[in-house]
Predict the 3D structure of the following.
Amino acid sequence: MKQCKMIAMVVLVCLLTGCQLEKIDGSKKKNIDFTVVSELEMTEPVKQIIAEKKTAPFKLTFSDEQFTYLLIGYGKQNTGGYSIKVKELYESKNAVYVKTEFVGPRQYEEQSHESYPYIVIKIEYTDKNVIFSE
């Protein structure tokens, strides 16, 4: 009998908490102003995340009290000369969308050093979901 009461209590708590799913709306509301952050301008937490994640591809966000940083890395490459372009950055009703393009080197240099291409994009603080695409 105690187990039945306990199960009923758990079900009641779950129903009363009001959990819900929200559909992400992809329709463009407005473009977002952004800044591509140089290594010299990065905050220490952002530098630390880049250092930890740079060997493998990554797409993540980091926020402080003022800004949200969109961090996109393409992992270890055998040569340098890569660049990353921001093709689109906009917000919808409930999400931020960022589209980037990974551009290879103009000329492959066999003797070149390995590199870890990444980009750090700074936008005003947001608590919206961020959708990354290429």
User: Anything to note?
Assistant: The radius of gyration is 21 Å. Helices lie at 2-16, 44-53. The first helix runs from residue 2 to 16. Residues 10-17 have pLDDT under 50 and may be disordered.
